[in-house]
Write a structure and sequence with these properties.
Thrombin, subunit H, four-stranded antiparallel beta sheet, three-stranded antiparallel beta sheet
């Protein structure tokens, strides 16, 4: 078996178990709700109860039960990927500026 097939086999066996273990911030049976008109709504990342996402040239955030969507960062650089590092800093893939930034 070649390396790519071993990797696919590993993912096929272990990925469903990993997903089942992870806690979802979305309640079972919850229905989709439109929060705002932000464009694509890319790069979702959760941190400390907030949902961070890109759209409309900004990075926005929303907290369930909160007052609504708020702008976390203007000038997102065309962000399309968000992730938090171990120190809690937001890592952003900016497609328009062709760089990765840390906030």
């Amino acid at each position: 078996m070649t390396m790519p097939y071993k990797l696919l086999l590993y993912i096929a066996i272990w990925a469903p178990a990993a997903v089942a273990i992870a806690e979802s911030p979305i309640a079972p049976g919850a229905r989709p709700v439109q929060l705002s008109e932000t464009g694509a709504g890319e790069g979702p990342a959760w941190r400390d109860g907030w949902l961070y996402f890109s759209g409309g040239g900004k990075i926005n955030r929303w907290r369930p039960g909160g007052a609504g969507v708020e702008v976390y960062r203007e000038q997102s650089g065309g962000s399309n990927g968000l992730q938090f590092d171990a120190q809690g800093r937001l890592i952003v893939c900016e497609s328009m500026t062709r760089r990765v930034t840390r906030t």
